[in-house]
TrEMBL record, chains A, B:
Assembly mode: Homodimer.
Alphabetical UniProt keywords: CBS domain, Cell membrane, Magnesium, Membrane, Metal-binding, Transmembrane, Transmembrane helix, Transport
Functional note: Acts as a magnesium transporter.
Subcellular compartments: Cell membrane; Membrane
Keyword flag tRNA processing: no
Domain of life: Bacteria
A Pfam family assignment: MgtE_N
Gene of this entry: mgtE
Residue intervals of the CBS domain: 178-241, 242-299
Topology with respect to the bilayer: Multi-pass membrane protein
Taxonomic lineage of the native organism: Bacteria, Pseudomonadati, Pseudomonadota, Betaproteobacteria, Rhodocyclales
Protein name (Swiss-Prot/TrEMBL): Magnesium transporter MgtE
Transmembrane segments: 401-420, 427-451, 463-486
Length: 487, 487
């Protein structure tokens, strides 16, 4: 017991490589045996195949045994579908001693689907039985209705009530992220009594950093941090030592706001109460971390027009579905831009240099607009927008755009002159760049603020809209100016 | 003490609005008094002004008093520079009882700069004196050298050593994120002894969910979770109950890997040890949460080519500097694409429809390529890439591209036909779309995997590179095919 068996994070990479190697070896061996023995007796071949197979299965099972459900999830996500289902069968065999319900909770949505499809209804019911109510609520949307009905029958009244409550909240509400594993005490007892009470437990719930102090009606009176319990005189009273000004959440609160509060105050757990101050659950930093990670993933994916995280081994068709809507939107905006150009075909025919120069004006406008929009979407997300924000931001962004327009536009004007030996073309280029950058700045401020005012998430779709504006707008400004001044 | 003073997250929004309103009112009042009293006696006017000013200052100070440093930071970030410095002066006045060093730690980098600039060296030294060594290390890069020298002189030998160590690690290493507030115990004592030892503390460090068990040489033997301390018999020994297979970090470990381990195992704290297993610090979930948030911010900003988060009230010139490098890169790639078009000017002059259609091919290629790249960058970040990944991914992405090329390309071909009544132009459109989508898929797989192999972060710059490929490539393919088949 005196040496520390270091569980280091590199270990999981190694375990993954080992499992991948074993799976590859298994395929190779079985293939070899199959080929070598083609001319031998059928039974004999099967015997050898079976032996090799069993050996490999034992080796892989050995690797998996005792792993944390999150580690199993990590490995399953990294394997192609056929290997994944093979390993999933091994995981669920008795020897590994792994809670398959918890693995289902840990894997990504796309992978979870593939695992659930491979399980019989009875197996799913059995897997779900080991889960807490709040975990069950997370899994429920992915389970077949028949399975959920069976699980529901196996719950007691309190659990059913909790499950129903947890499932009734929006995905991004505190209610959907809270759990029910809270330890509560009364205010009129001494710390000594609390210490004795805690010794009745086999273990405390994870992330128990504070006990909840409630009255007889389960109304929250305050919280007693474990550290206060530990450093204070056992004869003191809970009521004297509890904190009454800690963060309290309601199940309908936005998870995003709760997450920000956790970050701001460095919390580990927070009580969730009903409107009449009854303690109904708690939220932990583990749920917050998962939420933050999921949200930032979704934002990054959303910016590239991916609906959800893709299982990189997903069938081609799944990928097509995940990506098509963005391509469709893009097709429409590109088509509109193309029609703007079409309207100036006569000008282009007369001065073909315009065709070569116009994508520069549109492209740089799009980039600049996206910079503005990203900055403003971030600022909106922090909730720190001042009342006179529109005026201030427009002033600032338009100033930046004017500077960039004169500087970069001037540079491009010189380049255009160098290429086509026309001062007037250079001038049009500089003017068009400046105007398109001003348009980009204006729309970059107005689009996200308008979306916010309309109650929509400014992070979604702003980027498509601004690019559409700066593309069509850029072509129109450049070709329009050229037609007026040059043709 | 029996009622719960709810600290609800909406409160900060309200406080912010109140402070903003008070600041606006102050300006208005002072302005009014100034105008009304222009004809009165100078002294009298100053008197009234002073009175109104004092009243407003008292009101704002009242709002700020007792706020958490993170809340003060929130408010400061939301204010324009002049208001911000005014409030910052109030915060630092004695009445509010706020630790200004901690506020400096909480604000964003850009805002921190503006606050530090407004402080005298002596004030900075005083602010820093209240901070822990690890916090000081975070602040150090932003402080003037003279101030750091003064602070350094005020530290004892152990603190100096820790500060030096903490500052010696890369920003994204565990060493830079760890703190030194760990409570350690010996393995050969009983829980009773530990409980009595803890009562000697006034308070335990935040996020103490486990005690570290060390030997006489400070080597880590295991950890004793507080919950084990609480539920077990006080007569049992630490050595019997400590866990020896928990996650241990080294200061040189990547913070990103450590954050993933925290997420995976739902940790609150983890010990940091040197190579010879000596306990040198600990990492907490609070540092992990901040790290995850900062990283995802940086990624989102980076995708739009912003170097760092902008203070939305920053001077125009700061914004220009923050954004210019991306615009410069974009200018180069756009110029290259423009030259590709320039090479086909003869063809465009003959068939001007090409000018209108070419941006569609380039644009959709760029979008599709960015989808592929985003998906692959995500997969690389999770560390789950299988050994034969290149072959698998190329096969899948090229299949998706082929499908999209035939489908969307076909649709565009029909549109081109409808607009220009030329079947061959429609055919060129379809072919070019398909080829450019295949190019996008190929580069979308190869670029991030190559960057990874070269040891670079595939999240940075991949998007610029792919857009450059699909723009120039798209123009080249479309105009090249058109020149071959139509001209």
């Amino acid at each position: 017991m005196s040496s520390l068996e270091q569980l280091h994070h590199d270990d999981m990479q190694h375990t993954l490589r080992d499992v991948q190697a074993l799976l590859a070896r298994q395929k190779l061996e079985e293939d070899l045996i199959h080929r070598q023995d083609l001319h031998r007796h059928e039974d004999r071949r099967e015997l050898v195949e079976n032996l090799a197979h069993k050996q490999n299965v034992a080796r892989i099972t050995d690797k998996l045994t005792g792993l944390h459900p999150a580690d199993i999830a990590f490995i399953l996500e990294a394997l192609p579908v056929d290997d994944r289902l093979f390993v999933w069968d091994l995981v669920r065999s008795a020897e590994t001693d792994i809670n398959d319900g918890e693995v289902l909770l840990e894997v990504s949505d796309a992978v979870r689907e593939s695992l659930i499809e491979a399980m019989a209804p009875a197996e799913l019911v059995a897997a779900a039985e080991n889960l807490d109510t709040d975990e069950l609520a997370d899994l429920a949307p992915d389970l077949p209705k028949q399975v959920m009905d069976d699980i529901y029958l196996g719950l007691d009244t309190e659990e059913r009530e909790r499950l129903r409550a947890a499932m009734s909240y929006e995905e991004d509400a505190v209610g959907a992220l809270m759990d029910f594993e809270m330890v509560s005490v009364r205010e009129d007892v001494t710390l000594e009594v609390v210490l004795r009470y805690l010794r009745l437990f086999d273990e405390l719930p994870d992330h128990t950093d504070q006990l909840f102090v409630v009255d007889r009606e389960e109304r929250l009176l305050g919280v007693l941090p474990l550290q206060r319990l530990l450093v204070n005189d056992p004869d003191s009273n809970v009521g004297e030592l509890m904190l009454t000004d800690t963060l309290t959440l309601h199940p309908g609160d936005k998870a995003d706001d709760a997450a920000k509060a956790f970050e701001r105050y460095d919390l580990v757990s927070a009580p969730v109460t009903s409107r009449d101050r009854k303690l109904i659950g708690r939220m932990t930093v583990a749920a917050v971390v998962d939420f933050i990670r999921d949200k930032s993933e979704a934002e990054l994916l959303g910016q590239a027009g991916l609906k959800e995280e893709e299982d990189i081994f997903a069938p081609v068709w799944d990928s097509v579905k995940n990506r098509w809507s963005w391509l469709a939107v893009n097709l429409v905006t590109a088509f509109v831009a193309s029609r703007v150009i079409g309207a100036f075909e006569d000008s282009i025919e007369k001065l073909v240099a315009l065709a070569a120069l116009m994508p520069i004006v549109a492209g740089i406008g799009g980039n600049s607009g996206n910079q503005t929009i990203t900055m403003i979407v971030r600022a909106i997300a922090t909730g720190q927008m001042p009342p006179d924000v529109l005026r201030r931001l427009l002033h600032k962004e338009m100033s930046v755009a004017l500077f960039n327009g004169v500087f970069w536009g001037g540079l491009l004007g010189l380049l255009a002159f160098a290429l086509y030996r026309s001062w007037s073309l250079g001038l049009v280029m500089t003017l068009a760049m400046t105007l398109n950058l001003l348009l980009a700045a204006f729309m970059g401020v107005v689009i996200p603020l308008t979306m916010q005012r309309l109650g929509r998430d400014p992070a979604v779709g702003s980027s498509v809209l601004i690019t559409a504006c700066t593309d069509s707008g850029g072509f129109f400004i450049f070709l329009g100016l050229a037609t007026l001044l040059l043709i």
